Amino acid sequence: MYSIGYDIGSSSIKAALIETATGKSISVVSEPKIEMEMTALENGWAEQHPDAWWTHVCKATQSLITGNNIKASDITGIGISYQMHGLVVVDKDGKPLRDSIIWCDSRAVEIGQKAFDDLGNEKCAEHLLNSPANFTASKLKWVKENEPDTYANVYKFMLPGDYIAYKLSGEINTTISGLSEGVFWDFKSESISDWLLEYYGIDENLVPKIVDTFSSQSKVSEKGASESGLKEGTAIYYRAGDQPNNALSLNVFKPGEVAATGGTSGVIYAITDSLSVKESSRVNNFAHVNYTTNTTRIGKMACINGAGIMYRWLMNNLDVSDYNEMNALANTVPIGSDGITIHPFGNGAERVLNNRSLGTRMANINLNNHGKAHLCRAALEGIAFAFVYGMEILKSDGITASVIRAGNDNLFRSEIFSNTISTLIGQEIEIYDTTGAIGAARACELHKGDFETFGKRIMENDYVMGFKPSEVSHDYEAAYKKWKNELEIMLENT
Asked: What is the reported pTM?
């Protein structure tokens, strides 16, 4: 028997088929074959129609079933991971009233900031663990203010994963973890943040029914089955936003465990049982997948926007063939890149820098002595230093890392990158070859409560290698100190 997991991204929909008895990944597919389009009617806007996600979910499902010569009845569970912070609004018939306002849309920033100021920074931090910022609740307020006719017809709002679950089952529901990412959850009262909804003038009846993250949330309907190719009655056992799900995929559940990803942007996601909000202006705090009203599990997330995109930009602008060649070039240069520093903050405002946009800075280049090998090393070190800087912020907010697990992506496959981080934070980094879709598929088994077996299967199927701290750390520390001093000067002058 098998489970299927979906990862609803803004670029593509990934679907994974895993063998339930072993947790082994059988197949992973992606739809569409080219990147999905976004609509941007104004600068800073980003929208996608939610039915486009559904179309590609159906295609991916049918591809897995036919491509692996299995029957729909062989699939016994469904797990869903999805792009966080998006807004879907539907009418009483469940039809979308407008395109989804997705995660990277920034139109509601001023609405969230005004709410933060009016309601009080301390109250928002203590109850929401975040500013209302540009999260889902603020986006819904934007619709209310700017599209009153649309808002008047809203029956329920949903997050992207909620909508896919609805299309499969015909039932509208959500999770506490999902509500927390939209700042609809009050961690102090352990209930819906009704006072924020009242401030925004949003009817609490628009909130979907809450179901447990690991549970039989709903079942595939006759309509959902006919469109997707799945069997009617197949249970949806799990749903979570992409970053909590990435942590789950790496077996990160306990306080002190940290998940790291190094894609276009970089994320450090640390688990704690504390409601500390000391660094709430620089990190986000959400209910982790195993949060309950009886067990506090918070995911503290530090995001580095300028991560993989920095290394890709460099590859595209140097005369190199691929990342392997860049890594080989970088290995010819000593620690510290012979004085060159790169600060990779050229992908928009950085929350870890208090939402400042610094741009990417390359410094100390000697035109007689330095070449592309030095730039490759400086880029890897600069991105790694940004991760270390993020870890320092999390540490100041009470995080003491007991284990760090990362996906097997381009950055963490680089020995320079992983060794630099490992040495500077004094902690081994474990590398696993997995994806969000695989994690979502495996999570179908967690409604049974056996987290120990879940973790063992990740180790058995996915463990690649570990990077341990160097016994000689002086050169790493000196290079990071130089990089950090230059960053502080940049921040003072901005």
From this structure: 0.94
